[in-house]
What we know:
Radius of gyration: 19 Å
Number of helices: 4
Amino acid sequence: MKTRRMVLLALAWTAGAGLETRATRAEQATIGKGVHRYVYATACPLARGDGAFRGAPVASLDGAAVWQRSLEAERVPDARLEGTLLTTTATGAAAVLRIHLIGRLDHDGMSRMLLLRVAAAGPLGGSAFLTVERRKGPPDIWVYLPSVGSPRRQSAGNLGESFLGSEFRLGDLLQPDPDEYVVTVRGAEEVGGQRVWVLDAVPRTRTVENRSGLGRQVLWIGQDDSLQRRTEQYDRRGALLKVAEVLEWTPMLGARKWLARARRIRNIQTGVVTSAIFDRVEIGVGIPATDFAPQHLVDASW
């Protein structure tokens, strides 16, 4: 399926096509309470990691290594999640999608596989996405829309496309490769009572820039736990485009790994905000790698 076709359908959902996908006032209030609860949780002290980079002189830090360690902190062996994707426009119009997601690491312990399905009714009900990361190679991305009838492979050449009409990009479903960026440590700051390193990441090549749709990113990563608190995304002209925040990190597997249960991303240029909140989480459930195949996009049993 062509990228343009998927984007048009996503835009139709964003515009509120189909009453089933539009958020009621009660739904907005419930999700809003959840977000505020998660903000409070983030302000509380987090369990400490090993603080591998804490206290190191800025000049001695390898920014790519700090970023890589942050990614490692999120790599749970497998997970089954259910949650809500809420997008609100600058005028207050809102749309809600209920999503179901399973994921696991590949045998290399780094590459990730994800299957995501829209559980809600409406124009995108039953739509599903599959991503399979490849080390040092382009990922496999598959999309299934019931109106099309069969899974279609998606080009990985433009990961800046909107995901389901939200402010999240297709690229946000994939782990970045720090080696594809020139990463520098700008300094240290404090976020929510936590000391963080501030990293500046610029694509090494025009190919990476074109694929991501971003000219630069600034990341705030915890010195003690290596968790990413905030990301600023800049467009290819250098203007601030979006600000993404993790509102709650939940410790998993004895605090050896962490799961972002609530994220929020705000488009600075349009005022649109999307929140993703997972209210049901299972880790280490033994999801087989064979589940992550295009034919399972149509099968809603997972």
